[in-house]
Automatic annotation (TrEMBL):
Annotated source species: Azospirillum oryzae
Domain of life: Bacteria
Keywords: Membrane, Transmembrane, Transmembrane helix
Record's protein name: Tetratricopeptide repeat protein
Start and end residues of each Ancillary SecYEG translocon subunit/Cell division coordinator CpoB TPR domain: 20-195
InterPro entries noted in UniProt: SecYEG/CpoB_TPR (IPR018704)
Transmembrane segments: 24-45
Length: 214
């Protein structure tokens, strides 16, 4: 008797499954196809991205190599590459172009390039901060100390990877502005900071001593 009930129960389950498949089978198949297609599409997209990155990196290396024909040629090639490259690679090209301009003793033009990198929100924050630091460096001798110090202020924070150089530049700008007491204090703090690079600590100690004698 129990066998009969089991067979009836199995028939009912089979009928229910067939009914559900007829009702929802098309949607289930479509969903499965979309999952497979989506996975395949995502894999292809990742592969395409990696290929694009490789191609652009190779193009960047080629642009950098153009500087062997002269700084002007290098700047031209790097600027052309940056115009169509992804933001991070474009920034690297611009950093290289600015370095070539500095070699040609064109600090203002280099600083302008750094300003462009710093203002580009598509570029990684570390690149933007470095560009700000380098722009200030190029203007440190002639630019307005107060304005340049304000630009450096966010980079002096403990969380900034550029904090030691930013603090050293801030001290230099204070000395340029005639505030030797502030310069001495900043240099002394750098000299005593064991986390600062040894070169920075050595320079800071010498300058703190120098301004202390004033």
């Amino acid at each position: 008797m129990s066998d009969i009930f089991r067979e009836v129960d199995e028939d009912l389950r089979r009928d229910r499954a067939e009914h559900l498949f007829k009702r929802y089978g098309g949607a289930m198949i479509a969903a499965a196809v979309l999952v497979v297609a989506g996975t395949g599409g995502y894999s292809y997209w990742r592969h395409w991205q990696a290929q694009q990155k490789q191609e652009q990196t190779a193009a960047l290396v080629t642009a950098i190599s153009q500087s062997a024909q002269g700084p002007e040629k290098g700047v031209e090639a790097l600027s052309a590459f940056a115009g169509s490259a992804k933001p991070d690679l474009a920034a690297i090209a611009q950093f290289n172009a600015a370095a070539l301009l500095i070699r040609q003793t064109k600090p203002d033009e280099a600083a302008t390039i750094y300003d462009g990198i710093a203002a580009n929100s598509s570029v990684p924050a570390e690149y933007r901060d470095l560009a700000t630091l380098l722009a200030v460096t190029q203007r440190a001798e002639k630019g307005d100390p107060a304005q340049l110090t304000a630009k450096l202020q966010p980079l002096t924070a403990d969380t900034s990877p550029w904090r030691f150089t930013a603090r050293e530049l801030t001290a230099m700008l204070a000395a340029r502005a005639g505030d030797t007491e502030k310069a001495r204090t900043l240099y002394k703090q750098l000299a005593d900071d064991q986390q600062a690079p040894s070169g920075v600590r050595g320079r800071a100690a010498d300058l703190a001593s120098l301004y202390g004698k004033g």
